[in-house]
Amino acid sequence: MGMDDTNLLVQCDFEVFGHVQGVGFTKHCRDNCLNAGIRGWVKNSKKGTIVGKMQGLKPEVDKMVEWLRHIGCPGSKIEKCEFENWNTINRVDYKDFEIRF
């Protein structure tokens, strides 16, 4: 029996490039993830990008992938977003979605 994508838990790491710091990007990202039931973290990197990790149901994570790639928050200008370490997981490791410093 094939697993239904709707109940599939996935995780990935992401890095967003462009004008993404100083515009409230991490806060918008956190709020969107919390609303979608996605766990993990996000932070500003020292090189001017946004990095983070998401764990959640595949349909919700896919929507966040679109947001991180193409939409972003008001005032941001995304050049590109890279995703790595895609895996299916049995359970989430994080209690919530937090902004790290």
E-strand count = 5
The whole-angstrom Rg is 13 Å
Gross morphology is globular
What structural class should be given to the helix and strand makeup?
alpha+beta
In which range does the helix fraction lie? Answer: 10-25%
Give the N-to-C terminal Cα separation.
Answer: 43 Å
Could you state the order of secondary-structure elements as H and E? EHEEHEE
Work out the helix count.
2
Main β-sheet description = 5 strands, mixed
- DSSP strand content: 35-45%
Overall pLDDT level: 95
Strand order of the largest sheet: 4-1-3-2-5
Poorly predicted runs are: none
Q: What is the fold's blueprint, element by element?
A:
Blueprint: E1 9-19, H1 25-35, E2 39-44, E3 50-57, H2 58-71, E4 77-88, E5 97-99
Parallel strand pairs: 2-5
Antiparallel strand pairs: 1-3, 1-4, 2-3
Précis, in short:
This protein is an alpha+beta fold. It contains two helices and five strands; from the N terminus they run βαββαββ. The N and C termini lie far apart (43 Å).
Main attributes of the structure:
single chain, alpha+beta, 2 helices, globular
Protein described:
The chain has 101 residues and is an alpha+beta fold. The chain is 25% helix and 40% strand. The protein is built from two helices and five strands, in the order βαββαββ. It has helices spanning 25-35, 58-71, and strands spanning 9-19, 39-44, 50-57, 77-88, 97-99. It has a five-stranded mixed beta sheet with strand order 4-1-3-2-5, with helices on one face. A hairpin with a 5-residue loop joins strand 2 and strand 3 (50-57). The model has no long low-confidence stretch (mean pLDDT 95).
